[in-house]
Amino acid sequence: xxxxxxxxxxxxxxxxxxxxxxxxxxxxxxxxxxxxxxxxxxxxxxxxxxxxxxxxxxxxxxxxxxxxxxxxxxxxxxxxxxxxxxxxxxxxxxxxxxxxxxxxxxxxxxxxxxxxxxxxxxxxxxxxxxxxxxxxxxxxxxxxxxxxxxxxxxxxxxxxxxxxxxxxxxxxxxxxxxxxxxxxxxxxxxxxxxxxxxxxxxxxxxxxxxxxxxxxxxxxxxxxxxxxxxxxxxxxxxxxxxxxxxxxxxxxxxxxxxxxxxxxxxxxxxxxxxxxxxxxxxxxxxxxxxxxxxxxxxxxxxxxxxxxxxxxxxxxxxxxxxxxxxxxxxxxxxxxxxxxxxxxxxxxxxxxxxxxxxxxxxxxxxxxxxxxxxxxxxxxxxxxxxxxxxxxxxxxxxxxxxxxxxxxxxxxxxxxxxxxxxxxxxxxxxxxxxxxxxxxxxxxxxxxxxxxxxxxxxxxx
Amino acid sequence: xxxxxxxxxxxxxxxxxxxxxxxxxxxxxxxxxxxxxxxxxxxxxxxxxxxxxxxxxxxxxxxxxxxxxxxxxxxxxxxxxxxxxxxxxxxxxxxxxxxxxxxxxxxxxxxxxxxxxxxxxxxxxxxxxxxxxxxxxxxxxxxxxxxxxxxxxxxxxxxxxxxxxxxxxxxxxxxxxxxxxxxxxxxxxxxxxxxxxxxxxxxxxxxxxxxxxxxxxxxxxxxxxxxxxxxxxxxxxxxxxxxxxxxxxxxxxxxxxxxxxxxxxxxxxxxxxxxxxxxxxxxxxxxxxxxxxxxxxxxxxxxxxxxxxxxxxxxxxxxxxxxxxxxxxxxxxxxxxxxxxxxxxxxxxxxxxxxxxxxxxxxxxxxxxxxxxxxxxxxxxxxxxxxxxxxxxxxxxxxxxxxxxxxxxxxxxxxxxxxxxxxxxxxxxxxxxxxxxxxxxxxxxxxxxxxxxxxxxxxxx
Lengths: 461, 461
Fold this sequence. Notes:
By secondary structure, chain A is of the alpha+beta class. The first copy, chain A, contains 18 helices and 18 strands.
């Protein structure tokens, strides 16, 4: 009998189809606390045609297909809950074309953010979306990632011009064009970005890039209270200062940074800021921002323009999640990801801090506060039932608070497994519309089953 | 026998349902050259609930429903080709809420752009999207309008945070939330914007607004050739100058302006520019831009910061289409709307000029050149078969050129009737995905039939 694995070997090649235990295990999990689950097989396609052949075959034979980038997702997106094929894009990792005068670059989905930026630097360009992790661009588009720069340059959805996508039936489509703007047809581009592998598999991405700014200045400002730090953010936004990054890191997180990388930052609520612009404009912006933070009780603000000093200043913020993970062996990271309208942010963060303090577990708060998006990082011992249930309870309360404020359960991590249960509450009848689209594009439900949509949602359609 | 018009009167009220000939005629056309067609009835709903009741009724009885804003569309979007109900949103014209600290405003669909900006000014805010016409915001979202400011502030799709939409079955959904960013669920917001009334009727819009910039400076620069003007645009974009508007107006258009509003602008290819920013940054930007335009042979550049002088400078550009219309009695406006990647723009515009010059009709070229989007305006006599066919031939050639360059058949006007025939060519198999979504959401095809989708596309699904 020919097994489906033999058939995959015929469609790709012997050496790019594996059931090796270690490889299966690597593709059974992401960086989150969600329960791992092994795929039946891991494959490494090299082209859209190969992806198409595999999807056509999987669709005819009802085999789940889960696209896999680097596994840096935070809500279990790449976990093969129902087994099947984990489709690893790491061999599709070429930067295909840099169109510098169009501010566009064409890449394969397995290219990582840092790999792309290294290439772009030669042209004086950069790709703006920076979620912290050095994720693949395919994965970042699949989850609609964002991060520290989106307050100025937008989220993944704002920076993907076109996708080549293979559908469940093997059809290969393009969701956009190379035009800067278009009113032609329905906007599939935005629909597929953030679809988490449930509507198709991305095989090529055309991304918008930017010129490296004339001057970049990074700053760190400490405040007497979280409230004052967030008020300073509101002040900067209301003043219309085109800030490039503005990040809140609370006292507990700074303590963790000091412990982990041996620094001696003042252990107080801190804003990390970055300004991009021409020299004259930036100096005026910085002077204005200094006044605003001083009004909120900030006595200590330090700026760096030198690129090494800047990158040191930011490394503390960027490595925070990893520093928690490494200092808590045996524990797993749970990160909340609520986002609220800007005016509700102060109250949301204060409420969160109160809830966490009243609970039996520790949680550090960081936030992309210019976007109203904030995270609580919990390190939890999955064998400790009380700790797990406490973290889940807090996560749920934070989600409910955000939804009541007109916000969202996930600002940037995506739905995956962890936020599927909040979709009905957040989207109401719109969730049925989403499920209708899912059913139309993937009638057999082979594409990343269990993510975004629960089985019940799709059946009751 | 109760007619369906009686039923509509029962659902709304007697005085908001009319078959008056003049009103029917007003709702039979837009500002384009497309053939008018009368609706059976025009209704004026006041709430989402009324819209829902009407749609439920229309869906059960297979009656076409066409949402109508002000009729300023340019591709026949609001023409009831198959009769039915023209649903006029002019009584839903309230600014519902201004959330200044969230940079959000909630409006009903019949609010016009200028009405909103008048309200916002009191708060030091403005809504950025400016398509020239004083369209309704519902109509602008339906066509994914943009215009002169999108090079800096984005298109309609970038500036709508949430829509309340009534679906064909009467369900009322929200497509987004108030959160600045979200990775929750499929992105319905982007899908419905630009759907031209084919997926649902908008009953409320939450829009992103901006602080009025500290300084605004407008400029007008003339060039020896169109080529040099477009090269100057590329230079400004490549320099990373955050230009707020940059518009090309060719010599023929300037001539029209002079004739129409009695000015004496030099009749040469002209760029209209606008800079927004803080004073120091803006001055540095302007100085840099001066060097770039001088390198392209511009000897004459004039700047205005005073708001009246600025608005006079821009009025020439803004009223151009109307000035063509008013100076050509008995003729109708046909505007092409191709958009190409930035690097192909010079060649595209030169090619277009050559084709128009070689034809038997006159055409003026203007362009949102920072976005690669350009228009040729033809004034055509619909009774002159040769003139009509010549304009259509040119339109088609311009579309084909743009598609070959990786661009789009419509940068901002939308598909409507006029661009439906290019959808298959532009989108390939993705057009089937769009049709699948249309069929899922509107299985009986009552919503604005004949727009975006041809009947054949939907039937072959």
